[in-house]
From TrEMBL:
This is DNA topoisomerase (ATP-hydrolyzing). CDD domains: TopoII_Trans_DNA_gyrase, TOPRIM_TopoIIA_like. Keywords: ATP-binding, DNA-binding, Isomerase, Magnesium, Metal-binding, Nucleotide-binding, Topoisomerase. Residues 405-515 form the Toprim domain. SUPFAM superfamilies: ATPase domain of HSP90 chaperone/DNA topoisomerase II/histidine kinase, Ribosomal protein S5 domain 2-like, Type II DNA topoisomerase. GO terms for biological process: DNA topological change. InterPro entries: HATPase_C_sf, HATPase_dom, Ribosomal_Su5_D2-typ_SF, Ribsml_uS5_D2-typ_fold_subgr, Topo_IIA, Topo_IIA-like_dom_sf, Topo_IIA_B_C, Topo_IIA_bsu_dom2. PANTHER family: DNA GYRASE/TOPOISOMERASE SUBUNIT B (PTHR45866), DNA TOPOISOMERASE (ATP-HYDROLYZING) (PTHR45866:SF2). Its EC number is 5.6.2.2. Its cofactor is Mg(2+). The keyword Nucleotide-binding applies.
Length: 628
């Protein structure tokens, strides 16, 4: 081995912006292109809005204006405004900010003075303007470097801060903001901050009942077994009910931060609910029966919170305050007192809750034998599971690449073979379907165990008992761009939405987009994902280039496939726009064939200038879009 010279010249010191740009994952988690809710571009937005929320919490400014295009964001609050002499320092010097004084910001999310600086360093353009006491100051940066500074001047604008930024496309490749992800983020802000108004691209967001409204927005009211229980106390708010869906669904927050991966507070809440209900009914129910079909939200405030990463998606704090009670004890005491009081005062809700628990118990016992046999088969199959080609890392591992873990669900061996040969074996796994899966709409969860393919998929994902042990962060449906492929997508979406809706709601499910055409000449090859891109490619290359239409994934060579599942992979996230999952599935996957047929006919599109595009495909695509 060649010896490498190691001397003083080998030691390098990076300034703040160089370090952030060199290691962005340390500050904002994964990068991504905006196709997933937790991609870095949304973390950038959140870091800015969090500062505006902290101003509202401190009683300064009740309105926040957010405007966004595909690539640009502007945020204007009406708080106190950054002190004019510190405008540049506050956005460009690490460990500079107003949140280190615990008296002023005891329960703020961003305590480390990094967030805004990370946004600055990772943006191709970053403009900050502060309005304070009839005066204003503006500064502009490019990739963290100050490029323009204007002297203070008078203004008639209200106090507050305005920030405009454009994420750097050299870091966030091919990114775009998806409004639905931002919409969900803003609703969470107003649910957690009564009296706050957020205007996003002209739409007003406001909530009167906090977490009660959050559950109403995210569930189908007709499926709820009893009215939402809404409990509030000092530094804690809880809302809960039971529905008819399978599994458990939680929305948890700390100091306004959506802790999508839970943490000590969510674990304590789950434990406290079971303990309180057992004591109230004086019966040792199985915990799974108590929590089965639960939909709940919990928000707590913690002094100087400790999160397990800079992106703050999982709470690690054991105590409410440095010298205060434990998170577990605090939540347990609150739930034990308030939930017990509520059930005593509302016997109708208590009776409905008991019926739901007993129903869960009957269902669990009914499938116990089938479940045991199916799990034994799945355990044996996992040793030589021909359907699954696993990867080395998993989402449950404590590894820096855990967010990259992906399971491609393919149709047939041909497509899975191409992906298997070109995938990243560290983070990408492949599950191969055999033909079309069963339409499971209206069936009970017994079918998940009776159907070998569903059972093996459930075990591959490790979601039988919830998402805590989820094996892959990204579940990607990779089917052909034809009628059969679209049908398989619908059948898989039905499976997930029927039995594991929280998997979709948490943003883990996407559709893989692969090119429909390859246009090339001797000098250049262009892959096209739409007919418009095909026409543009032909115009660019000219002189009758060679055009290939990919009708199935198996037609794409492994070498080419590697280009489409790497850093430039295009994913369409499956986003739920309607809380009425049952009604949606009944319409698209039920037995109302004439009604659905009429919908398809009314939405049929025919591309007259391109006979190679099958109108049935376009009609099916419309149906998929409506479901998503």
């Amino acid at each position: 081995m060649e010896e490498v010279n190691y001397s003083e010249d080998s030691i390098r010191s990076l300034d703040w912006k160089e370090h952030i740009r060199l290691r962005p994952g340390m500050y904002i988690g994964k990068l991504g292109d905006g196709s997933a809710y937790d991609d870095g571009v949304y973390v950038l937005l959140k870091e800015i809005v969090d500062n505006s929320i902290d101003e509202f919490v401190m009683g300064a400014g009740k309105t926040i204006d957010i405007n966004m295009s595909d690539h640009k964001v502007s945020v204007r609050d009406y708080g106190r405004g950054i002190p004019l002499g510190k405008v540049i320092d506050c956005v460009s010097k690490i460990n500079t900010g107003g949140k280190y004084d615990s008296k002023a910001f005891q329960k703020s999310v961003g305590l480390n003075g990094v967030g805004t600086k990370a946004v600055n360093a990772l943006s191709s353009t970053f403009v900050v303007q502060s309005y304070r006491d009839s005066r204003t100051k503006i500064a502009e940066f490019a990739k963290g470097e100050l490029v323009r500074e204007e002297a203070e001047k008078e203004t008639t604008q209200r106090n507050g801060t305005a920030i405009n930024f454009i994420p750097d496309e050299s870091i966030f490749r091919h990114y775009r903001f998806i409004p639905e992800f931002v919409d969900n983020m803003i609703w969470n802000y107003v649910f957690l901050n009564a009296g706050l108004t957020v205007n996003f691209n002209g739409q007003k967001y406001f909530s009167e009942k906090g977490l009660h409204d959050l559950l109403l927005r995210n569930t189908d009211a007709e499926t709820l077994r009893y009215p939402i229980i809404h409990l509030k106390g000092n530094d804690i708010e809880v809302a809960m009910t039971h529905g008819q869906q399978y599994g458990e669904e939680y929305y948890s927050f700390v100091n306004g931060q959506n802790t999508t991966q839970g943490g000590t507070h969510q674990a304590a809440f789950r434990e406290a609910v079971v303990k309180t209900i057992r004591e109230f009914y004086k019966k040792e129910f199985d915990a799974a029966d108590v929590r089965g079909s639960i939909v709940a939200a919990i928000a707590i405030k913690v002094q100087e919170p400790v999160f397990e990463s800079q992106t703050k998606t999982k709470l690690g704090s054991q105590n409410i305050a440095p010298d205060g009670p434990t998170v577990r004890g605090f939540i347990n005491d609150f739930v034990k007192t308030e939930l017990d009081n509520y059930l005593h005062k509302n016997p109708a809700a208590a009776d409905a809750l008991l019926k739901r628990i007993l129903q869960s118990e009957r269902e669990r016992k009914d499938i116990a034998g089938i479940k045991k046999l199916a799990n034994e088969r799945a355990k044996k199959a996992s040793l030589h599971n021909r359907k699954l080609r696993d990867c080395k890392l998993h989402f449950s591992d404590n590894h820096e690449r855990r967010r990259d873990t992906t399971l491609f669900i393919t149709e047939g061996d041909s497509a899975s073979g191409s992906i298997t040969k070109s995938r990243d074996v560290q983070t990408q796994a492949v599950f191969s379907l055999k033909g079309k899966p069963l339409n499971c709409y209206g069936l009970t969860k017994k079918v998940v165990y009776e159907n070998e393919e569903f059972n093996l998929l459930q075990h591959a994902l490790n979601i039988e008992d919830g998402l805590d042990g989820l094996s892959y962060n990204n579940i990607v449906v990779a089917t052909d761009a034809d009628v059969d492929g679209m049908h398989i997508r619908l059948l898989l979406m039905t499976f997930f939405l029927q039995f594991f809706p929280d998997l979709v709601k948490a943003g883990h499910v996407s559709i893989l987009q692969t090119p429909l055409f390859r246009v090339r000449n001797k000098k250049e090859t262009i892959y096209c994902y739409s007919d418009e891109e095909r026409r543009n490619a032909i115009a660019k290359l000219g002189n009758k280039p060679e055009i290939t239409r990919f009708k199935g994934l198996g037609e794409i060579s492994p070498d080419e496939f590697g280009l489409f599942i790497g850093k430039d992979m295009r994913l369409d996230p499956v986003i739920l726009r309607d809380a009425n999952i049952k009604g949606m599935l009944e319409y698209f996957m039920g037995k109302n064939t004439p009604t659905r047929q009429q919908h398809i006919v009314q939405n049929l599109r025919v591309e007259k200038d391109d006979e190679s595009v099958n109108p049935l495909i376009l009609a099916e695509e419309e149906e998929v879009k409506e479901v998503a």
